[in-house]
Amino acid sequence: MKICVIGTGYVGLVGAAVFADMGNTVVGVDKDKAKIAKVTSGVMPIYELGLDEIVLRNVKNGNLRFTTSTPEGVSQSDVIFICVGTPQDDTGAADLTAVMAVAKEVGQNLNGYKIVVTKSTVPVGTNERVEQVIKENAQAGMDFDVVSNPEFLREGAAIEDMRNTNRTVVGTKSARALNMMRELYKGFNAPFVECDLRSAEMIKYASNALLATKISFINEIGQLCERAGANVQVVAEGVGLDKRIGRAFLNATGVGYGGSCFPKDVAALYKTSTDQAYDFKLLRSVMEVNELQKFNFMKKITKAMGENLSGCTIGVLGLAFKNDTDDIRESGAIKMIRMIRGYGAELRVYDPAAMENTKKVFGHDQIYYANDMYDAIKDVDALCIFTEWGNFKLLDLTKTKQLMKGNLIFDARNLLDQKAVESSGFVYIAVGKRTNGYTEDGDIVSTAILKNGR
Ligand SMILES: NC(=O)c1ccc[n+]([C@@H]2O[C@H](COP(=O)([O-])OP(=O)(O)OC[C@H]3O[C@@H](n4cnc5c(N)ncnc54)[C@H](O)[C@@H]3O)[C@@H](O)[C@H]2O)c1
């Protein structure tokens, strides 16, 4: 099939590569000239394991190419995927400016029957607006159909997720478009959910909102565990073995859920509910718990180290919102760094992929960008772990003890082995469980490593 993917970000670039790798002829379009120049020269504009290999192979065999010209991409294709961003606007709603701009351009450049497929996450009713905008901008009599085909990939496992998706959701009122989508996805070997446009749009939001709810739920259980003397990791194992519940998304975290999807999608669904005059109380709590989680973790730091952190240096491992990505959009780590900086501390930070993106946010004020994880902990009073990168689990505790000035470790991901950390002489404070960083009454111990008393 001849496919045009508009928006070559995390979803569009991976989608273009995977569709090309299945033997389709794909053109990736992005208005960002620097991005297109980069990918055309063989350098990936995003960090996604294995992506470069697929892109390069398909560029070489002629299945994949890139352009900044939407007219060129649209006119030469039969199926057009809209993969542009839908960030949160000031009201909490999804900002559809990019989607509607693309719809207009698609309409202006229709030159025969095409299917216009929205992969971007868009609120219920958006595809009907897309259809309207295309119609208004197309020449009279031009035939096209719209399809809602939400994407469920996770950054860091995007290629695997796209190829082995749990389900393909296709919403459309057109039998012709449905058949073409079946043909396109026949190699995916996943359940094919065919439905109306609005249900397809809602499936995406309901999925993300439910996953976010699981995270906020286990974070609340974690709060209770700390107070009641239980261990949230053990509880999650026990609960997760119930097949009706499942183990996924039951990791308590001090930084809450983040990223370019969950926060904005939960907010957008909540906005949809208020627009429909429905008060979605559960979602409101999910968002509130998520914000509180970060403040609660900050409270652990200040309880242990004091309210005035000027003169202290804190090492940070993990900046991306999750492991295996360079994406720091709505990253809990970034929010934590902002708070820690606000309390006056200097920071030494490290992330295997997200350093450049973080420099763009913070610059160098109060922050040293370390060369590796051990460089990040040199002479620091305390260490914070904010992202669950596999390498951080391998931290050599003896070396860490020698390199650090203080002995405090705040593990917002429960990544390290509690016994090993404690027996290496650290005061360990994690999430949803009592450690040697707690008094018998369940309070955080106040340490004596403060600025003047060091
Ligand atoms: N990132 C994810 O993990 C993920 C997963 C599932 C769904 N989604 C959804 O997919 C959509 C895209 O997300 P993303 O993370 O890939 O976004 P992104 O910001 O990484 O990429 C969007 C791209 O669209 C381009 N763009 C914007 N307007 C354009 C225009 N008018 N013409 C051409 N290109 C244009 C931008 O330059 C950018 O490169 C969002 O709606 C998101 O919610 C994202």
UniProtKB/TrEMBL annotation:
Pfam families: UDPG_MGDP_dh, UDPG_MGDP_dh_C, UDPG_MGDP_dh_N
Protein name as catalogued: UDP-glucose 6-dehydrogenase
Binding site for substrate: 152-155, 204, 249-254, 258, 322
Keyword Oxidoreductase applies: yes
GO molecular function, one term: UDP-glucose 6-dehydrogenase activity
Binding site for NAD(+): 30, 35, 86, 121, 155, 264, 329
Domain of life: Bacteria
One GO biological process term: polysaccharide biosynthetic process
Pathway: Nucleotide-sugar biosynthesis; UDP-alpha-D-glucuronate biosynthesis; UDP-alpha-D-glucuronate from UDP-alpha-D-glucose: step 1/1
The reaction(s) this protein catalyses: UDP-alpha-D-glucose + 2 NAD(+) + H2O = UDP-alpha-D-glucuronate + 2 NADH + 3 H(+)
